Amino acid sequence: MFLFLAILAIPSLSQDPDLIIHGGKIITADQKFSIKQAMAIRDGVIIATGTSEEVLKLKVQSTRSVDLQGGTVIPGLIDSHVHPLGAAMHEFDHPIPSMNSVNDVLGYVRMRAKALPKGEWISIRQVFITRLAEQRYPTRKELDDAAPFHPVVFSTGPDASVNSIALSASGIGKNFKVTDGGPGQVELDKDGEPTGIIRSCTRLIKSSSTARSPGNEDRKTRLSSLFHDYNSVGITGVIDRNADGTSISTYESLLHDNSLTVRVAISHGLGTAGSMEGILGNLKKIAQHRLRGESTMLKIIGIKTFLDGGMLTGSAFMRQPWGKSEIYSITDPEYKGLLFIPRERLLPLVEETVKARLQFTAHSVGDGAVHELLNAYMEVDKSQPVSKTRPCLTHSNFMSAEAIELCKKLGVVADIQPVWLYLDSHSLRKQFKDERLRYFQPLQSLFKAGVTVGGGSDHMQKIGSMASVNPYNPFLGMQTAITRIGRNRIDPLIPEEALTREQAISFYTINNAKLMFMENLVGSLETGKKADFVLLDRDILTCPVNEIRNTKCLATYLEGRQVHPK
């Protein structure tokens, strides 16, 4: 147990510490990965680190002290990819059970069909087929049988499986073609009839919702609860990788109320449909936004677009064909996935983003999409250096040796989710075999090349670090990055790409601070930086590797203020 010795604070105009942490193992995550015993804090800033003896000499009557009794401290953890407001509001209307099989999906559809009047839409979002026991979409007929009087959409992002009523209500019939100028395709059988599989064009499904609508206070309350849950697993900073106006105003409201307990950097969502004039006009507005300042708690760092589909849905854009697949319902042997933004539109988007001194990033999962984006960065770099804006690859699961070299050359950073390796590598290995996965999440190669790569979760649903569709527990992410062992497997996937424990800590601390453009303020425990830190129940540098995921945070501090426990 930790002994917390509190001494009544007395106002002081000096630089005497108001808090000293001592008697433990402080993993600083600085450039040398130094280990200290103690640190002193004043007004939320670290003013000294060193041995307990050295730092305790600074103590005065007003100083509070925490005796770690040999315990371990790490910097506050940062998640490089979350969607907080959507995740917080996911179960606002009604509880949604976990779905681990097609039968679970159909059971939920039947339950909603009983609860809703005939004709009302039943929607299921972000239940990935790779994580279902059967590893397939529910069929059109199965959805018809489960809800014969309701339109149903089973959506996994831009891809979906829908029933007959949903197709009819959306005007999708025999020999249908996508003609709205956007990406995607509707799968047809040999007779030209829609199979029910919709790839990267769920925008065509004319669904509606009768769910109750939240008010501003509802959003604030649930988002605050989520942020406190982030704090409970040591998270003190996040990057929202597709924020809209509602999310931003909710963040601002929490900040105004002094109840924002997580630093938030924002990649503002930028739609890429429509005229280039309109898109670039929206980009200009983002560049002039009031949150483009130097706030340490809330700021816009760049924009986010979508370049391809997903690896969990069979629509990521690959350099080589996917291959026929029962998992993803792929029948075309030449199918490579879907690319959403053609080169002639991507280049001006990147160019104008760099001119605006914003970070450009795009959802780019497949190696085809990764190379398209890197080629755009390389082209723009010929006329204006891109490195100062830290251009980013978001997800970049499938890479190559050439892609890593280009990242190094251009100063491109990457935002990667190791929990996808944990949850989905069994499906990917079945589809692609290990040889083709050689550069799947090549973390060690990126570290060795000096590329800044940060760990994230892509948290998008539910509150609960292990209960969410994409778990946001950073210790699970660390363990996966170190072991590269997926769920229900004992053999690592490409073990030469595993991180060391020190690298895994940097992956969620100082590296992500760089992705937030805040490495001078947070990400490591050094003199002059903000005192964001976490007290752990074990030493993650020495405990058994398969126990890292079980790490508990005994206390989390943001600028020297304890935010967990509340």
Q: Give the radius of gyration.
A: 24 Å
Q: Which strand order do you get reading across the main beta sheet?
A: 9-15-16-17-18-19-20-21
Q: Please identify the structural class as seen in this structure.
A: alpha/beta
CATH homologous superfamily descriptor of the largest domain? Metal-dependent hydrolases
What form results from the Cα inertia axes? globular
Number of strands: 24
What does this entry look like structurally?
The chain is α/β, with parallel strands linked by helices and about 575 residues long. The protein folds into three domains: about 5-70, Urease, subunit C, domain 1, CATH 2.30.40; about 80-85 and about 215-555, Alpha-Beta Barrel (TIM Barrel); about 95-205, Diaminopimelate Epimerase, Chain A, domain 1 (Roll), CATH 3.10.310. Helix content is about 30%, strand content about 20%. The chain is built from 16 helices and 24 strands. It has helices at about 50-55, 85-90, 100-115, 140-145, 165-170, 215-230, 245-255, 275-285, 345-355, 365-380, 400-410, 420-435, 445-450, 475-485, 500-505, 510-515; strands spanning about 5, 20, 25, 35, 40, 45-50, 65, 70-75, 75-80, 120-125, 150-155, 160, 185-190, 195-200, 235-245, 265-270, 300-305, 360-365, 390-395, 415, 455, 535, 555-560, 560-565. The strands form four sheets. It has an eight-stranded parallel sheet with strand order 9-15-16-17-18-19-20-21. A six-stranded mixed sheet has the order 4-3-8-22-23-24. A five-stranded mixed sheet has the order 1-7-2-5-6. Strand 11 and strand 12 form a beta hairpin. The longest helix is centred in the C-terminal third of the chain and has 19 residues, at about 420-435.
